[in-house]
Amino acid sequence: MNKKFLSAILFGALMVTSTGTFVSCKDYDDDIDNLQEQINKLATKEDMTSQIATLQAALTAAQTEAAAAKSSAEQALAKANSAESAATEAEKAAAQAALDAANAKAEAIKAAQDEVAKVKASLEATIDTKFNEAKDEFAKTITDLTEKVEKLTGLTAEMITSLDLQEVGENDFQLDLNYYQIAKDMKWGDKTSYTFGKDLDGSFTVSAGEIFTTPASLLVSVAPANAALPAEILSIVDSEGTSINDYINLTSASYTDKLYKGSRAAANGLYTVTAELKKDADKDAFVKLLDNGETTDKKYVAFAIAATKEDRTVTSTYDVTIQSTTNPIKAATEIDIKSTIKSSIEEEGTLKEWNGYKGGTPSEDATPNNEDCYPVVDGEAFTIKVASKVDADATEIETSKVLASYVVVDIENKALSTTDKAAIKSLTITGDVNKVSKGNIFDIAIGGTYSKGVVVPLKVVTIDYTGTQTERVVWVKAGGSSDVAQTASYVITPTEKVDAPTAYAYSGKANFTVPTGADKFDLAVYAKDEINISVSKQNVLNNATFKFLKSDGKTVATAIKDIAIAQLNATVNLQTMIDSKVYEGTVKFFDKEGTFLSQSTIKVQKVLPNTLPAGFSIKTNQLDAQGVYNCYLVPNSWAASNANPNTNYGTMAMSHVFNYGEADGADYEITFAEALKDGDKDKDNVVTGDEKLTVANGYIDNKKQHTTTVVYNYGAISSEKKDDEFIDCTVDATSFPTVFNCIYNYETPTYSWKWADQTDLGLKATDKLPYKTTLTYGTNSYETLGDDAFAKYIKGVSSRDGKYSAFLSAPYEKSLKIKEAHLVSNANKEVDEYFKVEVEITKDGNNAIKGFTATTISDETNPTAAVASTLKVTVYDMYGHEYVIELPMTVNPR
């Protein structure tokens, strides 16, 4: 015992003050008081025994973690030093250093376990009458060990402050403490007992009538998170504080597995608490305790997990339910289906799939390379998990679980030749072979100088709770390294609209090298769950194939040595592939006999397109100098109507505005802002590139600008949703303002009116015009010009498109009609001061200004000089919009 422990602490404190800040006597007193307080907590032999149990639990948990770290470091070092490794000397040294550190940690934990064990043995050996004399020394020693263990393991031996049940699945709070009993008349041959795994490590004997109990577990969390939780302080109690520990054995272990989405676990230290019914427990009394002793209308008791230390108890909620029954069971079934095998290069498969010759009996000429062999990595562990139907199916109660199992090399298998057996005997087969396990999980590695391609039949032997033994054979074959030989990346970016995004046909190329001797490959690319980082079972690629090409990227390579490029052809669901996420998978190569050669990483990423298909542009000079598109719409009917316009909209084919290049115009979406009525509101008018834009006459005003955007629509290829619908992926093409115009545009303007000249009328320059723009006061125009219609001498001119230039008497496609006309004096703006304008519609529906009628004939009112005047003609077009045409005229005095 460490009698000088207190002195050592004081000496250490003095050493600190010699090189640092002075510490007062009060601080020393505090340290001594704290130490004494820790010692005082260990007041009784029971307190000390409980504390030792806590230390042992902490060391056991740390030992498990240290063993895992050591195993990992050993594998890393072996891989770095292997013949196939390309590791540098520095990397090898780092691997060795990691192993040395793991070994040192394991040795330190073992030494601490030995110390704690010695103190425990000494404490147990001290008789009660002598305990008080040694109490202080025991307390100091245990306090010293506590500090040492806490530093070594990172766990605290202090009392926990809370204990909570944690939910990770269905029926998490139910303990099924059931038990099985081998039939009392069971015989193995002529014997009433049987040794399972005779001559193997862990072998055991079963007997007729023997009872077997099955453990059940709960997940709990403790606070503080680094608190140790030894089984010695645990109990399962009802709400009255009655413990059932006399009927059960409890164990506690740190929980180190992952928690998955949907779990409800606190961020504290996690432990698995396992309960198992004692074989010698009074089973009937235990069952009555669980249902409160009632035989009818049973009310099952609720239990809690409790932790007690130093007369202080922390209890979980009373959510635990317990049942305990025994049922007659049949022998375990479906062992070959429920038992699995898994390596780093192969997804988990069943023993049935790999149990040689597809489960049949080898023929007389069978050879080991004829059967289906499970591929494993040379020198790397693979795992066999043994189970039956009831192990995998929680609702199955009629058949037995697997009680125990072992794995041995089936060296006497009839399919093996003498040469095969010699090859197998030259291998190094390590791990859980020739060992009986009730955990039924076996990690095995096959290696050796000539291990590649050697087929090894492994016999999996099981015994269930009825005492029935079964045998299965799984065939394995070691191959190349699991190190990634190369990485090939494929980026999926559609170049045109995708009509079927859930079944998108993809083809891409990447540089690639195929290993010598390759005959076939397996390809799978899986999504990883964002929360759990666990592999999803849904392969991202469907119908995936490789076409191997020569370096020119076109010619198919017929020899492996010529392969330089791998063209991946597959079907993918663009909507379920997350935008920009990189999906990883592997392609594994095998020779013609199924021997694994190597594997390469395949990366597949869907990247949304951000460029347009080639060739898109706005047609030349469709926009004006200010970048505005003046859209001169084509009316659905040209004939003008004022009272009830029969033409109320105009159209424009988008193909007249844009060049679509290599893409289909239908895949372009053009949006004209606020150009469509939605009740009494304006909304966007959206049209595709292969359609006509339709605009109501109310928007055809020759002046308002409507923001216009053009996008290319690649379809619903994004993983994003809006209103539970996948959104389209669009790329901006262009943007500009648009003004909706008709041919009679007086706002810009592009349309004007004038008195026709000789050229307009088809006359010679020297010819006299057939009309006058002067009137004589008091004289009707009929008297001087005859019965001519003046409208045929008024010429409309379109500066945008001469096609629409026409006389007022015969406008383009009858698209304009006269509503009224007046002669206005310029000086005083008086309307019809001297003449009235006579308007009529001719028989052919054209406009006519028949003439001018004098309003007054009187010598007394003759103007003293010429009166400058304006002929104002009000017209309406095919959209019902009115305009005023103004032309100069003069009224001369008589």
Features:
5-stranded mixed sheet, disordered N terminus, alpha+beta, 5-stranded antiparallel sheet, 894 residues
How would you characterize the overall build of this protein?
This protein has 894 residues and is α+β, with helices and mostly antiparallel strands. The protein has eleven helices and 51 strands. Strand 14 and strand 15 form a beta hairpin. Helix 3 runs parallel beside helix 5. The longest helix has 37 residues. The N terminus is likely disordered.
In DSSP terms, counting alpha (H) and pi (I) runs of 4 or more, how many helices? 11
Outline the biggest β-sheet: 5 strands, antiparallel
Mean pLDDT across residues? 84
Determine the oligomeric state from the structure. single chain
Strand tally is 51
Structural Rg? 48 Å
Helix content: 10-25%
Q: Strand order, biggest sheet?
A: 15-14-17-20-19
> What is the distance, rounded to the nearest whole angstrom, between the alpha carbons of the first and last residues?
147 Å
Secondary structural class: alpha+beta
Quick description:
This protein is α+β, with helices and mostly antiparallel strands. Helix content is 18%, strand content 35%. The strands form 16 sheets. A 5-stranded antiparallel beta sheet has the order 15-14-17-20-19.
How would the blueprint of this fold be written?
Blueprint: H1 5-19, H2 25-41, H3 45-80, H4 89-125, H5 128-153, E1 162-166, E2 174-176, E3 179-181, E4 193-196, E5 204-207, E6 211-213, E7 216-223, E8 234-238, E9 248-254, E10 269-277, H6 283-290, E11 303-309, E12 312-315, E13 321-323, H7 335-338, E14 340-343, E15 346-350, E16 374-377, E17 382-385, H8 389-392, E18 402-409, H9 418-425, E19 428-431, E20 441-447, E21 455-464, E22 469-479, E23 484-492, E24 504-511, E25 520-528, E26 535-539, E27 542-549, E28 565-572, E29 582-590, E30 596-606, E31 617-618, E32 629-632, E33 634-635, E34 649-653, E35 658-659, E36 668-678, E37 681-688, E38 692-696, E39 705-713, E40 721-722, E41 725-726, E42 730-741, E43 751-755, H10 758-761, E44 774-776, H11 781-785, E45 794-798, E46 806-807, E47 816-825, E48 835-841, E49 847-854, E50 867-877, E51 882-892
Parallel strand pairs: 2-13, 16-22, 23-30, 32-42, 44-51
Antiparallel strand pairs: 1-7, 3-6, 4-5, 7-10, 8-11, 9-10, 11-12, 14-15, 14-17, 17-20, 18-21, 19-20, 21-22, 24-28, 25-26, 25-29, 27-28, 29-30, 31-35, 33-34, 34-38, 36-37, 36-39, 39-42, 40-41, 43-45, 45-46, 47-50, 48-49, 50-51
